[in-house]
Specification:
Elements: E1 3-6, E2 13-16
Antiparallel strand pairs: 1-2
Length: 70
């Protein structure tokens, strides 16, 4: 199943058949795609901006991370 999402930086639509890999970046602005800001659990209204209770805190939500997300 493929999911359509949008880049956190420029809003460009992207489609992947799973989670973005470590090297995946936006074709338009080249921003990392595997970031907290693109995660389904990201929520700026909750503690640490994450609804995933087991996730480790991430300070830089716009930079690539290699934690299990989405």
């Amino acid at each position: 199943m493929s999911l359509t999402r949008h880049c956190h930086n420029c809003g460009e639509e992207w489609t992947l058949t799973g989670q973005p890999g470590r090297g995946e970046s936006c074709l338009k602005c080249r921003a990392d795609l595997r970031v907290c800001l693109n995660c389904a659990h990201y929520d700026p209204r909750v503690a640490q901006q994450c609804r995933e209770r087991r996730a480790e805190p991430v300070l830089e939500k716009h930079t690539g991370n290699f934690l299990r997300i989405f």
